[in-house]
Amino acid sequence: MNNDSESLSLIILAFVAGFIILQLRRTLGRRDGYDGKDEKKQNNPFKDNRPDRSRNDENVIPIRSGLNDENEKPAPEPAFDVGVKKTSPFYGTLEKICKFDRSFTLPLFIDGAEYAYGMILNAFWTGDSKTLKTFLNRDVFGQFEDAIKSMKDDGKTFENKLEDVEKIELIDASIQGSMAELTVKYSSHMTIVIKDEDGNVVEGDPEKVVPIVDVWTFCRDVKRNDPNWTLVSTSEA
Q1: CA–CA separation, 217 vs 129, rounded Å?
Q2: Which member of 37, 38, 131, 199 has the greatest number of CB atoms within 10 A?
Q3: Helix, strand or coil for residue 34?
Q4: Three-state SS for 12?
Q5: 3-state SS assignment for residue 183
Q6: How far apart are CA 136 and CA 219, in angstroms?
Q7: Between the CA of residue 205 and those of 80, 150, 164, 201, what are the distances in Å?
Q8: What residue spans define the domains of the chain?
Q9: Which of 212, 50, 25 is nearest to 121 (CA)?
Q10: CB under 8 Å to 189, separation ≥6 — which residues?
Q11: What's the rounded Cα separation, in Å, for the pair 105 and 84?
Q12: pTM for the structure as a whole
């Protein structure tokens, strides 16, 4: 009798245990609660939700480049400081010279012209043909050389002195291709003296300073690197 009771109890316990296990599996097998696995899938309200530009930059066409390139005008060329106002009648020519030689300005040219004036005159008065060849073209050098030879043949010498250069002004300017010509007028004061072979004054007065006005024209190929200008014409105003 006892054995039958024990068997019945075991059967009931086994049935109860199976029922409990079945209920646990039904409960634990479902994902009704929060398990943390979906956290990464939820949107973070503090996260920057802007699109990833790194993937799209290569496909973006700049609006300005696409629309305005054809309409954009080239930047204007910078104005040249040639040393005279744009209203000057010589501005256009001097500007063209600057396009070949950006270091050119009229004040610098005038400074060089003043130096050349004194150098050429002194070379002429002393018969220094070597120096004259540096500054003069062939025709003008020939004229100066003939005058020097004539003075020597007559036994005469110059004892002139350039006292000062009062004013130098540009009176003409032209350019053909890259060949530029600038004409300047010199207003100066000199002592003019010519002596014979015995040292006697045959012309002029060593005590008298006289005003002299000369007009000289200089020429240069401005596309060349040589900055020196050559005297191509002389006259008295």
Answers
A1: 20
A2: 131
A3: coil
A4: helix
A5: strand
A6: 10
A7: 47, 21, 17, 8
A8: 91-236
A9: 212
A10: 162, 163, 164, 166, 209, 210, 211, 212
A11: 9
A12: 0.67
DSSP letter (8 states) at residue 57: G
SS3 51: coil
Q: Minimal CA–CA distance to 83: which of 104, 100, 111, 113?
A: 104
CA angle 162, 188, 196 (to 5 degrees): 40
Give CA separation, 101 vs 29, 43, 91, 137, 145, in Å. 92, 68, 15, 21, 32
What's the rounded Cα separation, in Å, for the pair 152 and 158? Answer: 10
Q: Along the 237 residues of the chain, how does pLDDT read in single tens digits?
A: 555 555 555 556 555 555 555 554 555 455 454 344 444 444 444 344 555 555 555 555 554 544 455 555 665 555 667 888 999 999 999 999 999 999 999 999 999 999 999 999 999 999 999 999 999 999 999 999 999 999 999 999 999 999 999 999 999 999 999 999 999 999 999 999 999 999 999 999 999 999 999 999 999 999 999 999 999 999 987
What sign for the dihedral angle of Cα 146, 152, 157, 161? Answer: positive
Burial of 222: CB neighbours in 10 Å, binned 0-12, 13-18, 19+: buried
Task: State the fold for domain 91-236.
Answer: Nuclear Transport Factor 2; Chain: A, (3.10.450)
* Cα 95 to Cα 223: distance, rounded to the nearest angstrom: 13
How far apart CA 54 and CA 157 sit, in angstroms, is: 89
Two tokens at 159? 């004892």
Name the E strands within 10-160.
Answer: 157-158
Provide the strand spans (E) within the chain: 157-158, 161-176, 179-191, 193-195, 201-204, 210-221, 230-236
